[in-house]
Amino acid sequence: MDQKFASSAVVNSKDVNGTAVYGIEGEKVGEIDHLTIEKNSGTVTFAVMTFGGFLGFGQDEYPIPWKKLSYDVSKDAFVTDISEEQLKGAPRTHPDWHSDREWEKRSFDYFSVPYYWM
Amino acid sequence: MDQKFASSAVVNSKDVNGTAVYGIEGEKVGEIDHLTIEKNSGTVTFAVMTFGGFLGFGQDEYPIPWKKLSYDVSKDAFVTDISEEQLKGAPRTHPDWHSDREWEKRSFDYFSVPYYWM
Known about the structure:
Chains A, B: It comes from Roseibium marinum. 2 copies of one chain form a homodimer. Chain A is an alpha+beta fold. Chain A has a single domain, classed as PRC-barrel domain (SH3 type barrels). Helix content of chain A is about 15%, strand content about 30%. In chain A, strands 5-4-3-2-7-6 form a 6-stranded mixed beta sheet, with no helix packed on it. In chain A, strand 2 and strand 3 form a beta hairpin. Chains A and B meet through strand 1, helix 1, strand 3 and strand 4 of A and strand 1, helix 1, strand 3 and strand 4 of B. Strand 3 of chain A pairs antiparallel with strand 1 of chain B, so a sheet runs across the interface.
């Protein structure tokens, strides 16, 4: 199996974009469209997932905190413990969500992830 | 002008890949092929630059510490104070440079950038 990331602790931003994300039951929940990166600190803040309209969700992109993803070597893909239900209930995006600290707070709180800016 | 990143402090990993990098004299020095990201911490470690063989450099990719880049809104591109001479003298890559802490140390020391892992 050609591993995108091998066992390395380091990933390539080109390989991340388009990579599948699986749920804890082994079902594919979507794929990563792109990451958002805080420029000055060089911190990855969100992985923005897309679902290709498959689930009929009301929006095109679902940002989830990067820390909610882990890499599964055997699948050569990312795995998350976020359920479909949880994703559907997540804070809705708006055009400037990625530079809206209040929005980021709501998202990180919703997913119980420590703020990346503290 | 259609700004890739506007004035946001946050950049999109898709927009970063392929973005031009200019030197302090305003000359284009290359472009960003991809970023390397430490998976667990979500820290961007290097921007890997390419030069399309134009300069006849002895290798295809030149990783530079992310902190050596700043974003110039007026150019809608990245700017670095690294000179061509400095780039040519930088530590040469090898197949596993991105997971080789000793190599990373040499590179960060060479460019006088604080280690991202401390």
